[in-house]
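User: For my dataset I need records formatted as: sequence, then structure tokens, nothing else. Please produce one.
Assistant:
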Amino acid sequence: MKQDGAGSPVDFFVRLTAEQTRRLVWRHVRTEIEDSGIEAGGAGLDGQASTLCGYSDWVTDTDPPVLISWDWKMQTTGELVLNPHSIRTNLMLVDAQGHDLGHSRSQALARECLARLAWDRPLLDRLRNTP
């Protein structure tokens, strides 16, 4: 890993402890609705048929900002489902000494943050206002 002159990693991750991460305030940036991408007779997440899919981007107002993005699908039942394997973020979880705890633990904490977000509200608002 490259380091700057002060010995800090230069890899575009924002390094935070779990406690710092849980205190972040997330702001919705964008939700895009895409074509289903499901062939006739195909299935979405968990083998369920899907009619809509897309992605959402959220950010913090910290410096540097923490970004999180993920894919979602709307099942034919109307249920919105976040794809937990699609999470993209620049967050790197670190321990109290500042050592990286790795991608898997960072992703798990990102999923925890998403579980507390009302991420479906901007999407539902957009669907209501789409002609």
